Fold:
Amino acid sequence: MAGKTQQIKVGNQVIGGNDFVVIAGPCSIESKEHFLETATEVKNQGATLLRGGMFKLRTDASSFQGLRSDAFQLAKEVKQEVGLSFLSEITDPRQISDLMDVVDAFQVGSRNMYNYSLLTELGQTDKPVLLKRGFSGTIKEWLGAAEYITKEGNEKVILCERGIRSFDSNTRNVFDVNAIAFIKANSDFPVIADPSHGTGVRNLVIPISLAAAAAGADGLMIEVHPHPDQALSDGFQTLNFPEFSNLMKSLKPLLSSVNRKLAVL
Structure:
């Protein structure tokens, strides 16, 4: 299966080519005003795809679970206003029809990497699927999960390394740079890095982003919020606007050194 990386189009952006793609936005959409402010800023700083959670699977059942269906219309309005294509997490096969005209790609979160019923259903659609690695998933299991999608006919699979659990409690997860290099050498799937979840520590996001880019990742997925300390979910791993700007500036010379460049619209 190893060979040239597939190029997968998500809305008006290609993932897997020579251009390095940055997907950015809040962990959770909190309101139209919040989402529009964040979307406008990340676009101005060079992000070419927009992320934002509508359905949130949380360990604590009393935590904010997302705006759910209340976010559908506002997400469509914001992505149209800013002109960015949009990814969001799907947590249940029954959401596919509802999300079909809201998202430009489905995101499958870590907890659902083993949800083979969901993966099979997504394989019967023609939308791209960003498949995050399970927090205890081996690379072999991750690639096997991708095959549940492709065997149904949908070849538009993008893998996302987001860290795995270990015995070390200093970070939320252990970000596996090895996995990025391995995927690039042994499969034709594009691979995106999520250093926000991969570290769970705001001041580690930029250095690990640069490490992922150096290892061959095709892009990043970054959580951004105007006021992370007030975020309704995962503020501790979320960049504020100046920090996101610093990341984008830091990426340019690093990418140049590996003969790549930031994607532009």
